[in-house]
Write a structure and sequence with these properties.
Helix content is 57%, strand content 3%. By secondary structure, the chain is mostly helical. β2 and β3 form a beta hairpin.
């Protein structure tokens, strides 16, 4: 998509070059730092906002944004900074989910009715030397994927198990319950248990959890890189098992979310330099509200709405173009659905009439998709999901009516339990949305890398499309080597499925 259509009155420009000479006193001498180039706003938008070519590249954007002082960034750049962190966090959160699913397929069991008999890929006799520790890691994954009963079953052990105490601690921590965002992070584990010393990577993850709780988010991300934990094979000396910890990706995701929130908070009240300042403020506020809701920060949502309500009302025409204009592919319709849900979680009355967007009660697909995207699964029935999927399967052109919301809906389905019960229907619609060139060009995928990774939820079971998903992952990894662990697990899975 031509981003100039979205940002009204955009100023042209690619890279703007400036020279920064900083003098540092060292042993009585002064050494100038090399001149650096300032990346222009259009280049940052190209790297962060959805476009079909080149792909979104959050790592390059974040590398640049972290090389300059926050005070030197304009309000627009701070909002883009926030988006880069949010989007990168979403990629890592999806990676954590898919990594858990596929590792359980490989080493525990698969409940896929068509291909599950091919898994696990190893025999129990090959695991004798690591079975006690492996059951711990699989248990952590099972809590996230299959729920408490399956997690407890894998954690069940006797006093002869060298990891008995820590497994009991995990079982108890899940009995107490936890905030949804801390699942997979190990933050509920008692770090005083001596058995932790037997699992070095677990010690590192618990240490990272403490950094998160102390709000040292940048330090946490640096810690993971220094320790090389993203691609750390827990059983690197074992011939038959490659296992990685999704906890690293989940903690990284949460840290990026928190850093994104900070950037948005600063960006909303920052100094803006373009005619598009209102658009940036609206986008920043919508994403800020979403992540406040993610962390269940009701007071902050209320304050955000109190401070930004009049801005939304006064600029409802601009907002309508961002949310409902099919000419511009409704680029921020998915953001609006998530933001509206966040606001409605703290206020008891409907939004003002001038902000009633995407609210056609007679549009059944829209109504069902909004509930699914907002994770109101208890309010979405199997029949509703099947009805909507059938409608899109029978008439794929109807998907063009929801160019951005469709990607949010399909992503949510692929990452939900419906990926099991409605697998074939989700596969059909996912394929119809992603692979025909005309439809792909007509859509707007808010966070394309995260969306493409989510497709593994069902398309990993479709031999004809699994190679395409693997190519998507390969291209994502080219800009972020931290995705190597997922690539290794996907390779093992593909080798078995495609035999």
């Amino acid at each position: 998509m031509n981003l100039k259509k979205l940002f009204i009155g955009e100023r042209k420009g690619g890279l703007l070059w400036i020279t920064m000479v900083v003098f540092i006193s060292s042993c009585g001498t002064e050494k100038p730092i090399k001149a650096i180039n300032k990346v222009g706003l259009s280049k940052l938008k190209e790297q962060i906002l959805f476009n079909s070519s080149p792909p979104q590249d959050y790592q390059s954007a974040l590398k640049y944004l972290h090389s300059v002082h926050d005070d030197s960034l304009s309000g627009e750049e701070k909002v883009l900074h926030g988006l880069a962190h949010i989007y990168q966090g979403e990629v890592y959160e999806v990676a954590a989910k898919i990594l858990s699913e596929m590792q359980l397929d490989l080493y525990h069991k698969s409940i896929d009715l068509d291909h599950g008999m091919k898994f696990p890929i190893i025999k129990k006799g090959q695991l004798n030397d690591i079975k006690d520790e492996l059951s711990f890691w699989m248990g952590i994954d099972a809590y996230a994927i299959y729920g408490k009963n399956e997690g407890d079953a894998l954690m069940a052990s006797t006093a002869s198990d060298p990891f008995y105490k820590i497994k009991q601690n995990v079982i108890q921590s899940y009995k107490r319950g936890s905030n949804h965002y801390s699942n997979q992070t190990m933050m509920g584990i008692n770090d005083n248990i001596s058995e932790i010393d037997k699992i070095p990577i677990l010690k590192d993850i618990i240490e990272a959890g403490k950094l998160f709780e102390n709000q040292e988010y940048k330090k946490l991300l640096s810690f993971f890189d220094e320790k090389k934990l993203y691609n750390k094979n827990i059983f690197e000396k074992h011939k038959h098992v490659q296992y990685y910890t999704p906890s690293v990706f989940k903690l990284a995701a949460l840290s990026h979310y928190k850093l994104g929130i900070k950037a948005f908070e600063e960006g909303i009240k920052g100094d803006y330099t373009t005619q598009d300042s209102t658009i940036y403020k609206l986008i920043g506020a919508m994403n800020l509200g979403q992540k406040y809701h993610y962390f269940k920060e009701a007071k902050k949502i209320s304050l955000l709405w109190e401070n930004s309500k009049q801005m939304f009302i006064a600029n409802n025409k601009i907002l309508r173009r961002l949310v409902e204009s099919k000419k511009n592919k409704m680029p921020y319709s998915l953001d609006w659905v998530l933001f509206e849900n966040a606001i409605q979680s703290v206020i008891s009355i409907p939004l003002p009439v001038s902000l009633q967007f995407l609210n056609d009660g007679n549009d059944t697909p829209l109504r069902v998709m909004k509930k699914m995207i907002n994770k109101k699964k208890n309010n979405v029935t199997q029949n509703e999901i099947q009805l909507v999927l059938n409608e899109f399967k029978n008439d794929p052109k109807k998907m063009d009516n929801y160019p951005t919301i469709m990607s949010g809906f399909i992503s949510a389905l692929n990452l939900s339990n419906f990926a099991i019960s409605k697998k074939h229907s989700i596969q059909d619609v996912s394929e119809s949305l992603v692979f025909p060139a005309a439809r792909a060009n007509a859509s707007w995928q808010r966070n394309r890398p995260a969306f493409l990774l989510s497709l593994y939820g069902t398309l990993r079971w479709q031999g004809g499309r699994l190679p395409d998903c693997n190519e998507f992952l390969f291209n994502i990894k080219k800009s972020n080597e931290r995705m190597g662990a997922l690539e290794e697990v996907v390779s093992l899975f593909s080798d078995e499925l495609l035999k």
